[in-house]
Amino acid sequence: MVLPKEIPSSAENDMDSQTLSKLPISSILIIIAMQTEALPLVEKFQLSEDQKSVFPKEVPWVRYHGTYRNLQINLIWPGKDSALGVDSVGTISASLVTYASIQALHPDLIINAGTAGGFKAKGASIGDVFLVSECAFHDRRIPIPVFDLYGVGLKQAWKTPNLHKELDLKVGKLSTGDSLDMSAQDEASIVANDATVKDMEGAAVAYVADIFKVPAIFLKAVTDIVDGEKPTAEEFLQNLATVSAALDQAVTRVVDFISGKCIHEL
Amino acid sequence: MVLPKEIPSSAENDMDSQTLSKLPISSILIIIAMQTEALPLVEKFQLSEDQKSVFPKEVPWVRYHGTYRNLQINLIWPGKDSALGVDSVGTISASLVTYASIQALHPDLIINAGTAGGFKAKGASIGDVFLVSECAFHDRRIPIPVFDLYGVGLKQAWKTPNLHKELDLKVGKLSTGDSLDMSAQDEASIVANDATVKDMEGAAVAYVADIFKVPAIFLKAVTDIVDGEKPTAEEFLQNLATVSAALDQAVTRVVDFISGKCIHEL
């Protein structure tokens, strides 16, 4: 955390975490899985691509960074798979970039933004942007006591009552799995998770953020209706560009709201 | 890589990777997801637990290390989940420890050892230890061209023809997913992957090892027959201790074989 100028730098060592948490948020880490979702925000916040990566040279992860309204913004996109050339989507890449970014960049707050499938039975429509209340996995079934809970991996998002009040975002629970489609078992787990939106990264970001006790919030924009008529992949590709625009607008409003506030004012 | 004593240390900078790969393997990273599987090997190789962790203080990952037959051995167990107290199994923890261990320890070779489900239709029996030829995922279904291949994430294990000849281990393909049970969709993907054994970590270790071009081999011991009569969880728990002993014996034989050899002699 960069200290505001009026506080002498020697005070840093004396401040406990409670005091630190009353300082305005200074560094945000935005994690976005797909380039299509990320690039409009890179432009909006006028971020620059890293010339000398903070990550090992072997990984495809891309960092964009800059300052926007007194916030130091790092936007990380896991990049293209080096062999196949597609976005490195899913929980493994998401957990790795979250881990490495926390180590390298020490953010005050993580924002995981991305597109998602939505359930119309739970009130989701195409283009809705959800502020996530909690995340869990729906494809880690381990039917052994306690391991079953580990598999579900329920994590609360950072509570943001004021953000919720100020912005008119819908609120819902997120369920994460590594498949774009949904099997009958996935569906049963998603229902058990009481989820309104379904993505491929959120709970993985939440897992790593929780280990390091970094507050994390999740913005998920609905590209396809999972319990609707159209096949997910087709609907997802059809709506990706336009829904990404809605997502980016929501992220901008959230970042504008965050600027100047401390973590407990969100 | 630690250089053998007869080579002057100044030669290191001049050696290309081809020359380096002709030197005996000096550092092995063993990744094991469960404590029950790990502890007998810690004793066998007389490894010590890290006093000052090479990992961030927040993670539960445990490193055991020591020297055995001129090999520097690091055995990493992802530890107990801090909230739930169970082993941190599955692909996310496996990928994180593989990443962080490669960064901190620069191993010449990774051995991922663990228990697995086996398919009797493909020749697996309880207690068999398989040397894995290739790894893929069975629970990352992304039905979009090229993304589908990314989801499957097929990676070759390091080729070890001499190790195979010397030790009488069965050879088979491994399929990885985050569930202990198997849904109909999982089964279809496992059949498509032509897998004989099914685990919860292998392909994740392979993914990260491949990014950093660290050779990796996989030893998987069969605790339960997936296409058999008994429920997986019950059979797994019943056989975990005895099959772990068979696994540990196999890992010891593999490490004994590796000692003194270069990576291309395996």
UniProtKB/TrEMBL annotation, chains A, B:
Q: One MF term from GO for this chain?
A: methylthioadenosine nucleosidase activity
The cross-references to Gene3D superfamilies, in alphabetical order and at most eight, read: Nucleoside phosphorylase domain
Q: Describe the location of the Nucleoside phosphorylase domain by residue ranges.
A: 28-255
Q: In this entry, which stretches build a coiled coil? A: none
What biological processes does GO assign it? Answer: L-methionine salvage from methylthioadenosine; nucleoside metabolic process
Write down the InterPro entries for this protein, in alphabetical order: MTAN, Nucleoside_phosphorylase_d, Nucleoside_phosphorylase_sf
Annotated protein name in UniProt? 5'-methylthioadenosine/S-adenosylhomocysteine nucleosidase 2
